[in-house]
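Pipeline run #58 for the internal structure catalog. This entry was flagged by the ingest filter as a single-chain record with no existing model, so it goes straight to prediction. Upstream metadata was stripped on purpose; only the residue string is passed forward. Reviewer on rotation: M.T. Logging verbosity set to normal.
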Amino acid sequence: MGALYQREEHGFGTAGGAGAIAASSAGFGRAGSFHRPRRSLADIDLVVDLGSRIGTGEWFRGLATLAAMIGTTIWLAPGIKPITIPAPAAMAPAQYDEMRSLAIAPTAYGADTGRRLAPTDRARPLSSTPERPQIDIQSTLGFGDGLARVLEREGAAHDDAVKAASLVASAVPLSDIAAGTKLAITLGRRPSRRVDRPIDALSFRARFDLALNLTRVNGELTLQRLPIAVDATPMRLTGAIGGSLYEAERNAGAPPSVVADYIKAIAKRVAIDDIMASDRFDMVFEHKRAATGEVQTGRLLYAGIVHEGETLRLARWTLGGREQWFDASGAGETRDGFTMPVSGARMSSGFGMRFHPILGFSRMHQGVDLAAPYGTPIVAAADGVVRFAGWHGGHGNFVQIAHDGGMGTGYGHMSRIIVRPGETVQQGELIGYVGSTGLSTGPHCHFEVYRGGQAIDPASASFERTERIGGGALAKFKAMMARWTGLPVGGAQTVPAKG
């Protein structure tokens, strides 16, 4: 076993063992005499632990070494002086546009710098260039861009660009011109190279059914409207469903958005998973064809399906300010449930007998209390008509709404009411704000639900109802559906395939 040396506080000690004895005896000379070995420079410990043997010569040597190292570092350290860099002068607008024309920004923003491309060092200016009498330019109106700005960017004079935009605005609102509209611009001769060119002509498709031409006549720009004949007859597609409803309708020529609307419409009446390959689809959607050949499709208007021998027909109709799908009998969507009038509220008191905190005796609590901060919005729980809006004794500011099916709701202790009696409200529509008016100990909304005029527990209330078209509106609805499908609207009929 080799010798084991340990670093101790006062020097190196030795551990037992044959090797230790051998190492110890190696430090002695002849028998009976003591020999002190000579220490070389390599034996001197330059890194002294200043935490031990304090006050010894070795400790002071270590301290001197440390001081020398610190002093040498300070002596050799360079002086620290702030580096000043002169800030470049702000670029002029023309210089800034020139710089941007070399960057990617013009491409990202529709080349709105007005520069084609800045010249590089390899470009040499020409002493003279021929002046073109006329320049024809094809440009595109970018998203969020302005007509006058596009014209100026292409080199048109400012006054002409503003005049052209004003003339176009007299025919169609500038905001209605769609992004991506192609502009055919003709710029005329200019009196000198130092000015921009005048606009000689401008033509583009302002709407699907309208084109506009601007031409210069006797030095003035004039506007010419060119109406485009459009056939707006809705398109009807029918066919067998086969292996996939989506693929069958897309293969028939229906746009993806129309197919998506169709599936959403019938999914509320027919389970999509139950549709079979032998079933047939039937749809009518908005379709416009211009005399110039362009086609534009719009919303789905009619959705029909022959499923297990029965025909379901649905059409869009607006009733009571709400558009939804109605079947051939005039029945709309069936909806259940109601919206809580105060979002995120805490129910501080339930329905039933309770000890009144102000009156001091027990009595029937005909609703629930929804605690919420002062000023929290209160919305209508369901569609209905406002029957009462005003002060109502202990309820304070109170609103009562009548709903279909003999149902009703009440909202009390409001800080402010924003509806009036006789007003029609939609589910989720704002009717007031949480307060603490009347007999109230803090801001909350007292919410009541009635059935047949009697208060019931809101937790057990059912607001299920089905919208129905009636009277003369039903006759118009059926006539519209018959016009689209070419079939009388009555009982269930199988829709024949076209072609």
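catalog note: Confidence is low (pLDDT under 50) at residues 1-35, 491-499.
catalog note: The two ends are 105 Å apart (CA to CA).
status: ready for reviewer M.T.
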